[in-house]
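Hello Y.,

Per our agreement to keep a running log of every chain we model this quarter, I'm adding this entry. I've kept the format consistent with earlier entries: sequence first, then predicted structure.
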Amino acid sequence: MATKALAYPIKVGLIGHGAIGSVVANAVMNSTHGLDKTRIKLIAILTKNPRSEETIVNFSNNNILLTTNPEDFFSTEFDVCVEAAGQPAVREHGEQCLLSGRNFLCTSIGALTNNTLLQKLTNAAINGNSQLQLASGAMPALDWMGASALESGSTVIATQTKPPESWKNARFKPNSTEQLEDVHDYDSITKPEIVFDGPAREAASYYPKNSNILAMLALTTSGLDNTNVRMVADPIDKSMRQSIEYNGSAGKIKLNVWGKKSPTNPKTSQIVPLAVIKALKNMSSPIAFGL
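Predicted structure for the entry above:
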């Protein structure tokens, strides 16, 4: 993941402290997963809801601001903002971050199915001399497919399968926080059921907490409207599975991935925070792997 040149240690601001953000915060604070405190440090966290006084004091003792106030958050001098709080956070804070000259590492890629928002953030990055960075999340082989897709003509078909509880209460009106009725009674299904079948743009718009992975795949390869996706709820095999068939100028690739869900959020894959940590490691380490 390419970035503009930054001075070390790189200072990180984090939006969100849930299933993704808490793992990222701990890794940066404790210099685990190959991170080095002399090269990268966490200085501020923005959350939607207040945390306990004990949690606030713990971060404060480590010289980290934990706040629900965006103004206080953006007043700190971080270099890179990691978004780990869902699509609303991208809409609310992405432009401000980029215009201020700071890179914005986005995990909620589905927000970018809105062309107006994508263009707004692109313009903000240009005008702010910054970069909108899209985390690979749970999608493997993006480097290979993205390189092949630099030449036109690629086609992509993806199937995303999750246990029923991952799809429960996960359908929303696009570009909003308004919840829509589920397409199935997920508590009572006894066989695999199709949740959605159509273009990646619609999938990521209606299922913002499940399908950022599909938006990332589409934006990297054949586009949001030309990437065909199927989403499935499987009450029998409850593993998190992805099947991808890519055909491009450089060749073909077929992937089957069995992932694990986050222990604290069944809608999120366990690999997502690790993908963010890998991106931060590439930004801050003397050697960057897999760019």
